[in-house]
Amino acid sequence: MGYITLLGDLPLVWNLIMGVVIMMIYIQGTIKVMEKLVDAGTLSSDLSRKVIHIAAGSYIWVWLFIDSSDMFSAMFNVAVPLLFFATFLLKGFKATSDDKDVKTMTRTGDPKELLKGPLYFTIVMMVAGTLFLDTWVGVFMMAIVGWGDGIAPYIGKKYGGRTYKTFGSEKTFTGSIGVFVFSVAGCLVFYALLGVIGGLGDQSLLPDPGIDLVQMFMVIVILGLVAMIVEAFSPSDIDNLLLPASTIVVMFLLNIVLEGNFFGIFF
Length: 267
Known about the structure:
Layout: H1 11-39, H2 45-57, H3 71-74, H4 79-94, H5 100-105, H6 117-130, H7 136-159, E1 163-166, E2 169-172, H8 173-196, H9 213-233, H10 239-258
Antiparallel strand pairs: 1-2
Helix pairs in contact: 1-2, 2-7, 4-6, 6-7, 6-10, 7-8, 7-9, 7-10, 8-9, 9-10
């Protein structure tokens, strides 16, 4: 059950409000602001993409407000990602370079880019909000793909430094270190938000991980290191799929080694 639920007797209505209405305002509001900044020349389309990427990855804040006592309506938390999945699928084939989503979410202005990274990202959001809703795996996979992969590549491109190539893709050491730093930072932020704040009520939002704070910090550091390595060897755009997939695998193994409780009802 969400930590903050105001309509305890009406979970379907509450989850509809939080999972659909509030989430749409949050995501569309971010996109609208980015669109205006890009049109005004205040923000580059590349930075705009990253801000939207991070905002989308941070959508899990809504889990604090989703009443998961009704699992059917709790799935409303992925309604907006599902809508954007359908939108990107349609616009990837039919939109023009003047389309707002194309301008704010693609590198080159080619609508077909929406069928790659942005589309994959919505898939990850839907997986996190269904199979891994209210679990440590869901929290950390979104923190890593949202923050680690969202902020670090921009830093690598902006500040440059020594480069290296993997599978034909050029990477920077600055960007790779950034993946690690911001993956860890993102995990810590959402650990505090969903794990600590979300654990203050009578019923904790996330399950007891079964490990102490030092072990949890080490888990986060390991996830950051793996994310750095995976991103370094990932082809462009595919990292939106490989990073969360690697997070799931690593946490599954750590769950066994530490005898923790990182997974939810389906595992």
